[in-house]
């Protein structure tokens, strides 16, 4: 047997991220509305039944070998199924690392999805999601994709009514920010008062695609911590506000800021403005799927 499949692994943004106090095991419970966007890594996965083991080739800025989530996902799949196969993965990295965009998690989800497909759905949906949750809190989301509610550590995922393909800018200061450091700073600062309606109003507003209604409902518990650790993030938020964006917010633990704007022409103008403030500005759209096959 020899099978080769090519997949897109999209980035995500957190339209709403509510973080609770650390539990005794050190993890923080979250409630988050995640949205896939059309900025994608590309993975080519080839499987043979001759021999066993995982080989990973990386093109772009990502760790090689066993430290890469792609490699860990393949190893986790083999452990969960007991299958023996040779797996070769070529990762073409486009999504910035340590950016709050979930690129590594998306890559891991892509590997799990394609291996399960090639293996004739050896894992049930529940088993696949459980395996994904052992690799990172965002990995289960990318198996569902589109507009999703994540709860717990992010492993409990519920598909929501889909948002339309709204234009959005991803603005990155060009340096990474450690998720662990952001959470440590969040613990020091203490949680702030949460929005009264929680994510309910946002979930209701998203399918209508009205940025004027959506903007005030966006929220991120980690934004203050990210801004304290990296003042450049606060500067990007201020620049977007001065430029008249419908709303700008830190995605996940940062440092990427996403800028929401409902009109394509206005988004193009904002793109040019934000390029004056950051080395990496990408204009993209909301996406209705997670990892998906392209060849």
Describe this structure in words.
With about 300 residues, the protein is α+β, with helices and mostly antiparallel strands. The protein folds into 2 domains: about 1-160, Ribosomal Protein S5, domain 2 (2-Layer Sandwich), CATH 3.30.230; about 165-285, 2-Layer Sandwich (Alpha-Beta Plaits). About 30% of the residues lie in helices and about 30% in strands. The chain is built from 10 helices and 12 strands. Strand 3 (about 55-60), helix 1 (about 70-80) and strand 4 (about 85-90) form a beta-alpha-beta unit. Helix 8 (about 225-230) crosses helix 9. The protein is globular. The mean pLDDT is about 90.
Return the average pLDDT rounded to an integer.
92
CATH architecture tag of the largest domain: 2-Layer Sandwich
Order of helices and strands: EEEHEHHHEEEHHHEHHEEHEE
Count, helices: 10
Q: What distance separates the N and C termini?
A: 18 Å
Using the coordinates above, name the CATH class of the largest domain. Alpha Beta
Radius of gyration: 19 Å
- What is the general shape? globular
Which fold name is given in CATH as the topology of the largest domain?
Answer: Ribosomal Protein S5, domain 2
Which spans of ≥5 residues are poorly predicted at pLDDT below 50? none
Largest sheet: 8 strands, mixed
Helix content: 25-40%
**Count of structural domains:** 2
